Amino acid sequence: MPELPEVETTVRGLRPVLDGQRIAALEARRPDLRRALPADLRQRMTGSRVTAIRRRAKYGLIDTDRGDTMIFHLGMSGHWRIDPAELGAHDHLVIDTEAGRRVALNDARRFGSVDAMRTDDVEAWPAIAALGPEPLEPAFDAGALAAAVAGRRAPIKAMLMDQRIVAGLGNIYVCEALNLARISPVRVAGRISDVRLERLVAAVRSVLERAIAAGGSTLRDFKAPDGTLGLFPKDYRVYGREGQSCPCGGTVKRRVDAGRSTFYCGRCQR
DNA sequence: CCGACAACCTGACGGC
DNA sequence: TGCCGTCAGGTTGTCG
Predict the structure, then answer these.
(1) Nucleotide closest to residue A89 (CA–C1')
(2) Cβ burial, residue A202 (10 Å; 0-12/13-18/19+)
(3) Which nucleotide is nearest to A221 (CA to C1')?
(4) Which one of A44, A56, A58, A241 is the catalytic residue?
(5) What is the pLDDT of residues A96-155, one digit of tens each?
């Protein structure tokens, strides 16, 4: 999926098209993605005016003036298409505005999701309520991270991938942040010094901020809504670069943890 | 609590 | 050209 920077790029791309606009029509072209779409989604959204488009972790939130919020998750392959010339097989949800614009949620693998609930209830929704702090906000600092991993023997990579510890990171940015912080992905989380956790927090922020500034990452599926390509992959230090050189001069290695590829440098990451 | 693994689904790619 | 195996940004549940 799209990790935090890609969702942020998506939200920013949707704003010029949807923000402040009245929804003239919403069509679900299939009843489900990862799970069933809300049966009353069309009825709840049609006729409403969009009042805000927000992001929480990897979730995108579309608020309306009727007090409803549509929540989307892009899964592994989801992205929004803006004013598509024609609809394709994987355009599963289509929204038309009164101003004549159209956005389509395209998700080939259908690992994404769409939910709807009262705006006031969003924070209490279990999937959102369980999330840890936003990594770009002040609440995510070395002290908070230390408290979250205290006593945990799991490897730090697993902890950073856990959305309850910190919300929004995925495989790419965890690998990148650990490399930037010079911390081994398999280091036992609860035994990392405060100084190194401080470095890790700074690395997470740095990686995410630079990725957002670049418009996110383009891999097989992700595109920003305006069709432009994220430019961040050219800045990858380790991700997808097995056998190539780390900025430190070492060689990038790959291992598999919990079924996911981990890219790291055995020389500078300890 | 931990981690390995499978499942959910399609598409891209490399090898033969 | 085509078939087959492998891999891919995530989440959730089971099992040991």
Answers:
(1) B10
(2) middle
(3) C9
(4) A58
(5) 999 999 999 999 999 999 999 999 999 999 999 999 999 999 999 999 999 999 989 899
